[in-house]
Design goal:
It is a single chain. This protein is 25% helix and 27% strand. It is α/β, with parallel strands linked by helices and 509 residues long. The protein has 3 domains: 159 residues, Nitrogenase molybdenum iron protein domain (Rossmann fold, 3-Layer(aba) Sandwich), CATH 3.40.50; 195 residues, no CATH class; 113 residues, Nitrogenase molybdenum iron protein domain (Rossmann fold, 3-Layer(aba) Sandwich). A 6-stranded mixed sheet has the order 9-6-12-13-18-14, with no helix packed on it. It has a 5-stranded mixed sheet with strand order 10-5-15-16-17, with no helix packed on it. Helix 2 links the parallel strand 1 and strand 2. Helix 7 packs parallel to helix 11. The longest helix has 27 residues. The chain starts with a helix and ends with a helix.
Length: 509
């Protein structure tokens, strides 16, 4: 990554607007954004996507060639709201020519009428769902969207080993904290401001564990890391949690269900446990690190997979207590669902913002951009009506979405559907009987005739497709983040989604 960021020095050498003949060079992060830009820019722009065809924008890692492309761009567009990984955002911000438009569409489109909704995560696990979070903006500390917050393990006490690791999209583990040989410089991870991520938390022996984390803010520009606070979290592993004393003494708050994140408050510097399902009055619960006891019960016992990549957990077939990450892959995101384009009205807001951005970079062709945008907006109006009519033809009790990825909240919200669940299991381990049971019950109880996978995520859908087969329901395709050979434009993608929903969920003619 250092080699990519270093190419920021090329930014000052970028050609002026119109370097490609009389055309603007526009670089976008995703194919969907590039397609919207092309419709507005027409023959006046050359546009491309950094994330390749069929790629996952959540996990794409930029290359030095990407940095060079950004450095030659007259205009750059990102979606952001933490859709793209921070490494990609850093590459763009470090290499975009000074003074050129560099627009985060999802974050700026609200002023054009875009509607944003919270990213709701309500996977019903039978143990605590535990992640890491950064809360607050840190503006008073000089933080920006390219800043990084370090979370470092400085001490681990316990009868066995504590290992916090991420299982990536193709099953490759990435260890964040591992006390096997003590804790040191490698036991650190970073998050952007206002982000959170999911992890597996494994413990090799039952007993009481204490994990001390220290936080620091890196704002870049060669400035030293600003040291924030530290805190010690207590885990009760395979033992009765109610009698365990927290690290700071005094009364303990036992966390044993729902979704909780070990959290850095970037504005105050405090470390705490933030739970988005546990209520204290009408407020969401904040518990100081030293008062927390995290319950890791015996039902969290899992077998170590017979896969050499997971040998750090122990011998194959051996058992460890583990709180699962539940969502496969590196899943760093914020509080707002970033998939705005699944509501066509939001895509219209993007188009208007793209229009005004291109005009600001090329005022001599303002009328052409306005005309192109007006033509495309009329096409999007027709698309919105088409999607609405197709979904409306589905019986109301069948408008249920079960998918492999939480990318369809806007589609459901805009067109009268319900997201009944999404499941992305860990391919390195056999799914639990309880996980399969809950998914089967959801499909059976709702009497859904189909579940949905994304073409570029089909390899992650083994449990969903197997359960669908067992329940005798169809497996259908919806497009979320990217195109393929069967859908090469935003309009084609959304028309397919509408038609597939109608076909698979029993819409009437």
């Amino acid at each position: 990554m250092a080699s990519v960021a270093a190419l920021g020095l090329l930014a000052g050498c970028s050609g002026a607007a119109g370097a490609d003949g009389d055309k603007l060079t526009v670089v976008s992060t995703t194919e969907i954004l590039a397609d919207l830009v092309q419709h507005v820019g027409g023959d006046l722009v050359t546009t491309s996507s950094l994330v390749p065809a069929g790629g996952d924008p959540h996990s794409y890692e930029p290359t030095p060639a990407d940095a060079k492309r950004v450095a030659r761009a007259d205009v750059t567009f990102t979606n952001h709201l933490l859709l793209e990984p921070q490494s990609l955002i850093k590459t763009i911000d470090a290499n975009a020519p000074e003074g050129s438009p560099n627009v985060s569409l999802a974050e700026a489109a609200e002023s054009y009428g875009a509607h944003v909704i919270p990213l709701v995560e309500n996977i019903g696990l039978d143990v605590l769902w535990l992640g890491l979070r950064v809360r607050g903006t840190g503006k008073a500390r000089g933080a920006t969207r390219t800043s990084s917050v370090q979370l470092r393990a400085t001490e681990v006490e316990g009868p066995g080993r504590l290992i916090a690791y991420l299982t990536e999209s193709l099953g490759q583990p990435d260890r964040y904290f591992d006390s096997s040989d003590g804790v040191g410089p490698d036991d650190v991870t970073t998050l952007p401001p206002a982000a959170h991520t999911h992890l597996n938390w494994a413990f090799t022996k039952p007993g009481i564990y204490r994990l001390t984390l220290a936080a620091g803010l890196e704002v870049g520009d060669g400035k030293p890391v600003q040291q924030l606070g530290s805190g010690t979290f207590t885990f009760a592993v395979g033992v009765e949690s109610r009698g365990v004393a927290p690290a700071a003494g005094g009364p303990a708050t036992v966390l044993d269900d729902g979704h909780t994140d070990l959290t850095v408050d970037l504005d105050s510097g405090r470390l705490l446990a933030f739970s988005d399902v546990r209520k204290v009055g009408d407020a969401q619960a904040d518990v100081p690190a030293g008062q927390v006891v995290i319950d890791v019960p015996n039902k969290a016992l899992v077998s170590v997979p017979d896969d050499p990549r997971f040998s750090f957990l122990g011998k194959p077939g051996g058992q460890v207590h583990q709180l699962p990450q539940a969502v496969l892959g590196k899943h760093v995101h914020g509080e707002i669902d970033p998939h705005l384009w699944e509501d066509v009205a939001n895509a219209k807001a993007y188009v208007q913002l793209i229009r005004d951005t291109l005009i600001s970079a090329d005022r001599g062709n303002e009328q052409t951009y306005r005309d192109n945008a007006a033509t495309y907006l009329r096409e999007l109006d027709e698309l919105d009506e088409y999607v609405r009519a197709e979904v409306a033809s589905i019986p109301a009790d069948r408008r249920q979405l079960i998918t492999t990825h939480d990318a369809f909240g806007y589609l459901a919200d805009a067109y009268g559907m319900t997201v009944a669940g999404f499941v992305v299991p860990n391919p390195a381990q056999e799914p639990s009987v309880d996980q399969v049971r809950k998914l089967s019950e959801t499909i059976r109880n709702l009497e859904v005739p189909a579940v949905f996978v994304e073409p570029n995520l089909a390899q992650r859908a083994s449990v969903l497709t197997q359960v669908a087969k067992d329940q005798n329901v169809a497996v259908c395709l919806l497009y979320g983040d990217s195109f393929d050979d069967n859908a090469r434009s935003y309009v084609a993608m959304m028309r397919h989604n509408a038609e597939e929903l109608k076909r698979c969920l029993g819409g009437t003619r």
